[in-house]
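User: tokens in, sequence out, please.
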């Protein structure tokens, strides 16, 4: 479910990282009267547009804090020095001046300025825009910390009213809250030995907000505004000496309308309502440290590492495919009217129900129940799932959203996601680039044709552009010129198709984005094309797609050109460039003797080319080494795991030696060591039986998941001639108390070996770790 913008839209850490570059210099930290109080706030809120159903609209959560470094008194005036947060650019702060006699307060923000670029110029511009956009939200948050002060000495029964008048404006950004609040002291109490007054308040308010939002599919900026009226009701424990509340809870309910305005003058309007529940607590220093320690402990108990392991019987049953447990939860989801409970049930099912049949059933149940937001998300994902290409039924459902943008606006959903996902899928996995049955595509032929028909029939420009991309993805020779003739600014959805039409392979943001090299180009041109400006050959799926689509469009024999470039190369570095591309295209395979000669040549370029080819060949090999030949390798692996015995010598001089450098990585140390018994010869098991426990995968999965240990799994060692591939993976569990969730990790290593002068040496390796 997409979380939507609200009055208190993001946590403090995000807000202070999004403030205007024109903000004032930070307020000096006070050097006296240090209190270091901390105000913690928690909120649950949601904006709902007119067509949203409450049960399908879970609340967004927010947890924030602000430190009150010191409070200084100057006559009747109080000055509160606040630390709002720390960013990579420095400390953010605020100064609040309270005049109790006038019952007024002023706020001066001291936010660090944006001082350097972040990765790319586009990121810098976006960062600066976000700072400006959120400045008003920060000031609102600080003012929410300030209580309504009584006009005279507090007493039980005292009632007073005050005016709420907040108005922030900065160009197109606007945020305003106006109304009248009535407060009444209902009793007194004591907190930490200090007298506090329990105050109940109620305010009738009007809220207005407006902000620009980028509409990428139209390459324009739209203006979003919301206006609503309603109430804010709360109760607080007022500390009259500190002029702060020690605790507060309030509820907000607003109703009004939300308006989306396009530069063309088109306007979409929908009813809107806002709901929020908030709680604040003021902590003294020692109490806050206790609170933080409790939170850290709770977080640690709830953190389960990077591998999810069932933590109770229900999760265990779901992960094992228990249909009764699945259906029981689905029935509970259908019955509940609580959106948070429904979201929790859905998350549980999505986490632990893994088989395709059950997942498809869950999707159908949610869609049939009328969860339109889920349907929109589901269709967005279907558009970019090449393993399950979108079919005609999917596309017809997408077209309903695409034909009428007011549907997405009425459900408070992003308007352009389906357009973008369809274009991404059809340019990443186009039909014309499919050469083999196993090659993936984003849509079935009938679905692609249904999208292509929009080029001539749709009234919405974005739908026509999606239709043109579909036509290009099926027949680049006929439609590439039409794509290239249209201006990208007026047709932003065509950008990726235009890039593909000219044969660009390196499309990531920092790349040079060179088009397909002209005929008979040298290795330097092809290196630039693959790497995007880097000094190494980088070949990915998008490069293969670009080569295939450019060949389909122009008829150029790119494969033949690359093969000639490899044969005619006069240097090892040139052969590395052409050879690497050909390897990824499956058009180059070195013989055993060629591999051995290159790997022992001492020439870096030859070594790298051979290493890549060896990894490819061994990765496809299905020939297992005999037990007699594999046993010493397995014994050496176990010795390295158990005793840190050095592995085989590394033939690549660029790699530093180390006893465990080629083994899968660990997070918490080895602990008890287990090996899967499969693929470990009986003679090796007998040798290590006293130090290693051998068991099956089912036995490992049946162990108490909170018991520590590391389970190693060795795949059959495959090879050919003098080469072998060793693949070792591990499942690591950290010892945990009974009240904590299981903590698990996984890692793996693939080691490529060559037999050289009677010994095995490492010529390449790959590794991963969660």
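Assistant: Sequence out:
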């Amino acid at each position: 479910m997409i979380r939507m913008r609200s009055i208190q839209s993001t946590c403090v850490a995000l807000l202070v990282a999004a403030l205007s570059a024109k903000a004032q210099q930070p307020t000096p930290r006070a050097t006296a009267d240090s209190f270091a109080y901390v105000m913690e706030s928690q909120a649950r809120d949601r904006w709902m547009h007119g067509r949203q159903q409450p049960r399908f609209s879970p609340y967004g959560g927010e947890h924030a804090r602000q430190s009150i470094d010191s409070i200084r008194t100057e006559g009747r005036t109080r000055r509160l020095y606040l630390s709002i947060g720390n960013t990579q650019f420095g400390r953010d702060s605020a100064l609040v001046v309270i005049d109790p006699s006038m019952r007024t307060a002023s706020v001066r923000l001291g936010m660090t300025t944006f001082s350097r670029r972040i990765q790319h110029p586009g990121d810098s511009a976006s960062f600066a825009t976000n700072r400006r956009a959120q400045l008003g939200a920060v000031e609102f948050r600080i003012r929410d910390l300030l209580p309504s002060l009584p006009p005279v000495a507090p007493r039980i029964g005292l009632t007073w009213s005050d005016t709420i008048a907040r108005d922030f404006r900065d160009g197109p950004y606007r945020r305003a809250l106006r109304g009248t609040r009535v407060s009444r002291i209902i009793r007194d109490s004591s907190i930490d030995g200090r007298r506090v007054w329990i105050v109940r308040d109620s305010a009738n308010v009007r809220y207005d907000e407006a902000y620009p939002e980028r509409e990428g599919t139209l390459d324009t900026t739209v203006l979003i505004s919301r206006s609503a009226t309603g109430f804010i009701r709360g109760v607080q424990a007022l500390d009259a000496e500190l002029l702060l509340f020690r605790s507060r809870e309030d509820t907000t309910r607003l109703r009004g309308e939300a308006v989306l305005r396009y530069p063309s003058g088109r306007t979409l309007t929908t009813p809107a309502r806002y709901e929020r529940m908030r709680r604040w607590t003021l902590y003294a220093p020692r109490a806050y440290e206790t609170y933080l320690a409790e939170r850290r402990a709770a977080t640690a108990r709830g953190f389960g590492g990077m591998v999810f392991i069932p933590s109770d019987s229900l999760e265990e049953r779901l992960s094992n495919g228990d249909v009764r447990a699945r259906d029981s939860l689905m029935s509970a989801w259908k019955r509940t009217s609580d959106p948070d409970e429904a979201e929790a049930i859905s998350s549980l099912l999505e986490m632990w129900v893994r088989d395709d049949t059950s997942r498809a059933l869950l999707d159908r149940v949610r869609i049939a129940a009328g969860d339109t937001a889920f349907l929109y998300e589901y269709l967005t994902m279907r558009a970019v799932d090449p393993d399950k290409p979108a079919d005609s039924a999917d596309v017809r459902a997408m077209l309903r959203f695409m034909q009428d943008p007011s549907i997405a606006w009425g459900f408070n959903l992003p308007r352009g996601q389906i357009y973008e996902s369809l274009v991404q899928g059809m340019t990443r996995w186009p039909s014309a680039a499919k050469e083999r049955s196993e090659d993936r595509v984003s849509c079935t032929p009938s679905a692609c044709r249904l999208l292509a028909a929009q080029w001539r029939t749709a009234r919405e420009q974005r739908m026509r552009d999606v239709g043109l991309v579909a036509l290009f993805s099926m027949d680049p020779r006929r439609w590439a010129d039409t794509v290239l003739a249209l201006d990208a600014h007026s047709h932003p959805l065509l950008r990726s198709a235009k890039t593909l039409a000219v044969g660009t392979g390196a499309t990531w943001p920092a790349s040079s984005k060179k088009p397909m090299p002209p005929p008979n180009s040298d290795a330097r041109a092809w290196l630039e094309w693959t790497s995007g400006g880097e000094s190494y050959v980088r070949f990915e799926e998008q490069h293969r797609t670009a080569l295939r689509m450019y060949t389909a469009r122009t008829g150029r024999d790119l494969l033949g050109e690359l093969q000639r470039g490899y044969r005619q190369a006069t240097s090892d570095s040139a052969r590395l460039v052409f050879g690497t591309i050909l390897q990824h295209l499956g058009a180059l395979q070195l013989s055993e003797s060629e591999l051995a000669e290159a790997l022992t040549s001492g020439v870096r370029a030859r070594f790298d080319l051979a290493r890549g080819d060896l990894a490819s060949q061994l990765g496809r090999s299905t020939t297992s080494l005999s037990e007699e030949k594999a046993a010493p390798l397995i014994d050496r692996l176990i010795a390295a795991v158990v005793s840190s015995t050095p592995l085989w010598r590394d033939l690549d001089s660029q790699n530093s030696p180390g006893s465990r450098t080629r083994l899968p990585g660990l997070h918490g140390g080895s602990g008890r060591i287990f090996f899967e018994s499969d693929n470990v010869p009986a003679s090796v098991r007998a040798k290590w039986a006293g130090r290693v426990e051998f068991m099956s995968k089912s036995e490992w999965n049946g162990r108490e998941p909170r018991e520590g240990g590391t389970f190693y799994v060795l795949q059959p060692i495959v090879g050919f001639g003098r080469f072998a591939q060793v693949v070792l993976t591990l499942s690591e569990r950290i010892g945990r108390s009974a009240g904590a969730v299981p903590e698990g990790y996984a890692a793996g290593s693939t080691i490529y070996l060559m037999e050289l002068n009677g010994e095995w040496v490492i010529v390449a390796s790959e590794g991963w770790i969660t």
